[in-house]
Amino acid sequence: MREGGDFELELELELELDLGFGVAALQVYCFWHMPGYNPTRRNRNIGTAKSGHGQNNRLNIPAVAHGKHLFWERIEGAQEVCRAISNRPLKFFVQPTRSDSVYACTVDDVARLMLHVPVGDWEGLDAIVFRQPRRKEQTLEPVWGRLAYAADLVNQRGHVLHSGPAIILEAVNPTALVKFGKTLSAEGMAELERLKSDGHRIRPGDRRHIIEPTLQSCRATQLYRTLLHELGHWVDFLQKVERPAAALPNPDVYEELLERFHSRPYREKEQFAHSYAESLSKRLRAIDAVPFDRQLDPEMLLNDHLRLSDFDPARKLLE
Fold first, then answer.
1. Measuring CA to CA, which residue among 225, 230, 253 is closest to residue 240?
2. The predicted structure's pLDDT at residue 293
3. Strands (E), the chain
4. Residue 12 has pLDDT above 50, yes or no
5. Closest listed residue to residue 174, CA positions, set 151, 204, 198, 208
6. Bridge partners, residue 94, by sequence
7. Buried-state track 179-208, b at ≥16 Cβ within 10 A, e below 16
8. Integer CA distances (angstroms), 136 to 62, 71, 243, 283, in order
9. What integer pLDDT is reported at residue 19 of this predicted model?
10. Per-residue pLDDT averaged across 218-238, rounded?
11. Are residues 220 and 199 in contact, defined by beta-carbon separation less than 8 angstroms?
12. What 3-state class would DSSP assign to 257?
């Protein structure tokens, strides 16, 4: 072995040749000069995603275990509560929460707000779910809430509790920090400003915006903005699918309108929902309908067979 890593490979071959007049011995010396590095040892992609590392064990929300139902359709242990709002029944499904989570809004918070929403805007929408997401779901798909245009809400045995559209509000950890990246799009900056107006404290970090929530700021986000935003998506659906299809006798029109609705750009649908939520919020604030104090009545919760600790962080600490 030479200095610098080069090496010589000396190959000695002895050949015996019968030339007819005797045997001649021929010695051949070969010297091969080869580069002195090991490509497998110096490849910087080894052990990284570029070489396939981690491709077979990526963190994702399991779907097979849930069968044909989406993960947010499973509401194990949910208690059903009903309220009459504007002479219409509205069902609430409340899941038990974990030790680190609570519901920022109460059932009566939502019921009081829905009293001020035009009845035609939630036509056909008769279920609201208070859902406890799993930790993996909070990590991979954190949301304040979502609208299910058509859902089969099932319990732990797979029995359908409700079939149809529903608004889902997620349980929150009011002490957990929320991180936003420093590089934000126009939509991201607008959302950051909305969170700030909801009462969340925004603290700039080295690489991220750090959001410090409270129970009241989470309640403002979910009750006065998320709930109205999801209602805006439902109004959009009513105007573009349900009502035009009901006005036409052809049953094939519904599928066509539904496909056209879901093929619209994401930004267009979000802009409609934001505009609806902002417009309705301004009207409600103008008549002093919102904001209002948190509607938390322990006796009412007891009558509804709900746990006070699912809505009161102080009570949860005592358990």
1. 253
2. 97
3. 7-18, 23-34, 79-85, 88-94, 127-131, 145-154, 160-170, 178-181, 201-204, 208-212
4. no
5. 198
6. 79, 130
7. ebeeeeeeeeeeebebbeebebeeeeeeee
8. 10, 11, 38, 38
9. 47
10. 98
11. yes
12. helix
Tokens standing for residue 70: 């989406």
Which token pair is 318?
């005592």
| pLDDT tens-digit series, residues 239-260 | 999 999 999 888 889 999 999 9
Average pLDDT, the chain: 86
Residues 295, 298, 299, CA angle at the centre, nearest 5°?
110
Who contacts 225 (Cβ-Cβ below 8 Å, separation ≥6)? Answer: 144, 194, 198, 277, 281
Rg (CA), the chain: 32
Amino acid (one-letter) located at 88? R
In sequence order, what are the beta bridge partners of 180? 209
Residue 81: C-alpha distances to residues 84, 94, 297 (Å): 10, 8, 14
Q: Give pLDDT, residue 250.
A: 86
Looking up tokens 């490509």 gives 39
The two three-digit tokens of residue 88, written as one number: 């219409």
Per-domain boundaries in the chain: 3-42, 72-176+213-318
In angstroms, how far is CA 122 from the centroid of its own chain?
24
CA 302, 305, 309 angle in degrees (round to 5)?
70
Query: Euclidean distance between the first and final Cα of the chain, in Å?
Result: 72
* Token output for 178: 């929320």
CA distance 145 to 308: 21
pLDDT value at position 118? Answer: 96
Per residue in 128-150, pLDDT (tens digit) is 999 999 998 988 889 999 999 99
